[in-house]
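agent: user wants the structure for Integrase from Candidatus Neptunichlamydia vexilliferae. delegating to structure tool.
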Amino acid sequence: MGYIREKDLRDGCTRYYAEVQFKGFPRLTATFSRKTDAKLWIQKTENELRCGRNQLIADSRKRTFKNAIDRYFKEQSISVVKRGHLRWWEKELDHYYLKDIRPCLISQKKQKLLTEPTEKGVMRSGSTCNRYLATLSHLMSLCEKQWE
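agent: tool returned. relaying tokens verbatim.
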């Protein structure tokens, strides 16, 4: 969804602030001196976002969960327990792009985590499941904040 905001400057000029925001994508903005340029930019940007040709989308499609796990193992010192948690998440989310890992997907995997037995044949408890989720949360936070 795009919209244009008009602003009158002190020198008498008018600037047009165009903004496009789609769910799941960052807000994109640009400034123009002509309203028609702003409208064209909004149309072009919305079309690129829908078709997946925008540079932000192209960059996000390069990073897979497997790449994030590998980098995490190289750069972080982690315990054996967390390593096991990450191996389970890697098995489940290996082929997904980071951009495609959404709360609904994590919720599905959480249910699977709670219902499938471990290698020893024991069901995982809720607190164990929370620890798995905390490990995943830490990995995803690092991906978003530090590694971009």
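agent: one observation worth passing along. The helical segments are 35-51, 55-60, 65-75, 80-93, 103-115, 126-147.
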